[in-house]
Amino acid sequence: MLRTRLSDTLKSSMKERNERSVSTLRLILAALKDQDIAARGKGNMEGLTDDQILSLLQSMIKQRRESIKLYEQGGRMELAQREAEEIGVIEEFLPEQMSDDEMATVITAIIGEVGATSLKDMGKAMGALKEQYPGQMDFAKASALVKERLG
Q1: Residue 39 has what pLDDT?
Q2: How far is CA 96 from CA 44, 76, 134, 147, 148, in A?
Q3: CATH class assigned to 100-150
Q4: What is the distance between the alpha carbons of residues 55 and 137, in angstroms, rounded to a whole number?
Q5: Which of 15, 133, 134, 151 could lock onto 51 through a cystine, CB 3.0 to 4.6 A?
């Protein structure tokens, strides 16, 4: 289970005194705990599933990529480097990412599978992609490809 792997990696990183890994893993586990508490409020006592955790990790990576752009624009290269290192730690827990060619093939198949014909159907296609391929692709890129195909 992904949750156990995160905790075990935190423990080993603490033993190794890997500060970047420890701080990043603590951020992940804190965000996970927040999401679990929110899920309990909605009647889900089990907490997040592995697929939901993968989505959380993807959003954390997206946030860091946006921060890197802003830090680079502001000339704060040391902060951009720290964010890039955090992305590296987070990516260790994601499945292997699809190449652009694989993503294009999958998107074409999903569009056919859900019967999407126009931009109105983009939500159906993106929902199917997120359900079937959690954590395996950059959904911002996928969204652009879906929009291009349906537009």
Answers
A1: 85
A2: 29, 30, 11, 24, 25
A3: mainly alpha
A4: 10
A5: 134
CB 142 within 8 A of CB 107: yes
Which pLDDT belongs to residue 34? Answer: 92
The rounded Cα 67 to chain-centroid distance in angstroms is 15
Q: Do domains 2-91 and 100-150 have the same CATH topology?
A: no
Question: What one-character DSSP code corresponds to residue 121?
Answer: G
Per-block average pLDDT, block size 10, for the chain (151 residues)? Answer: 92 95 95 90 82 88 94 95 95 86 90 87 88 81 87 81
Q: Give the pair of three-digit tokens for residue 126.
A: 């993106």
* Torsion 43-47-51-54 (CA) sign: positive
**pLDDT value of position 5:** 93
**What tokens does 50 get?**
């592995």
| Distance separating alpha carbons of residues 115 and 125, to the nearest angstrom | 9
CATH code of 2-91, in short, is 1.10.1510.10
